[in-house]
From TrEMBL:
SUPFAM superfamilies given in the database record: Dipeptide transport protein
Identification of the protein by name: M55 family metallopeptidase
Spans through the membrane: none
Length: 274
């Protein structure tokens, strides 16, 4: 059994605010260790329950956060930030299941550090469905007929996953009080929860269906300001919808929509006036 795991940071145990997820601040190095330990709970449990190959994709910010020298030795790691498919780089139809760890809720929703890829995005839409990182990544997995079997993060990410993916197993390791305050399990207790839920997810693997994306989707990004929309609309094939900050792209499939998202959000970050 081959498993794939995308690991974000905002949903990791005990992390309440940006001082833990930004390398410029004092809590970051401690958070990296907790993040790596949390990944190891899932990886080791999977290998002890039928997995024979496990690929980990570091999916936070510059995507070089996980400590490779402390990662469970049988896993392989994708690290570094220039990736065509960002948080789901190298996921394909050879995997039997995908796991999202350290995930958070989408922009504009309750949940610790909730956002969608960058803080310039209000909403992603696939046709008329509003999604965040979790939903968009799950659609890419679904394109390859790979089910998302386990989501670990805060309670709001767990709720979002359950609304999108019937029968998905969730592991809420902390509960949002505000966007920058949480009630959290300790790392030891969250480790126990993640190991338990990993076993449950593997046992239910054949009962969890992939999130199948629409064919030839209309992909739209709503930005926070018009300058961001202007930058994003530099990409060929895009247009700004009238009287809005929404940029539309007609994609041939969800993979093209995802790559368009990567390009448009990177371009939009060039807008400096908010």
């Amino acid at each position: 059994m081959k498993l794939y795991m995308s690991v974000d940071m905002e949903g990791i145990t005990g992390l309440p605010d940006y001082t833990f997820v930004n390398p410029q601040f004092h809590n970051y190095e401690r958070a990296r260790r907790i993040m790596t330990q949390e990944a190891n709970h899932v990886i080791e449990t999977a290998f002890n329950n039928g997995c024979d190959y496990f690929l980990v994709n570091d999916s936070h910010s510059k995507m070089n956060n996980l400590l490779v020298d402390e990662l469970y030795e049988e896993a392989e790691l994708i690290t570094g930030g220039v990736k065509r498919y960002s948080m789901v780089e190298s996921l394909d139809d050879s995997y039997q299941g995908a796991i999202f760890l350290g995930y958070h809720a989408r922009a504009g929703q309750p949940g610790v550090m909730s956002h969608s890829m960058t803080f310039g995005v209000r909403n992603f839409y696939v046709n008329d469905t509003a999604v965040g990182e979790l939903g968009l990544n799950a659609y890419v997995a679904g394109y390859y007929d790979v089910p998302v079997i386990l989501v670990g993060g805060d309670d709001c990410a767990s709720h979002e996953a359950e609304q999108l993916i019937p029968n998905v197993v969730t592991a809420p390791v902390k509960y949002s009080i505000t966007r920058q305050a949480v009630k959290s399990l300790t790392p030891k207790k969250s480790g126990e929860l993640l190991r338990e839920k990993t076993i449950e997810a593997i046992n239910l693997l054949n009962r969890i269906d992939p999130l199948t994306p629409p064919k030839q989707p209309t992909f739209r990004i709503e930005f926070n300001n018009y300058g961001q929309a202007e930058w994003a609309a530099i990409m060929p094939g895009t247009e700004i919808e009238p009287n809005s900050c929404i940029v539309k792209f007609e994609a041939k499939d969800i993979l093209e929509a995802y790559r368009a998202m990567v390009v448009m959000t990177e371009l939009a970050m060039n807008s400096t006036f908010n």
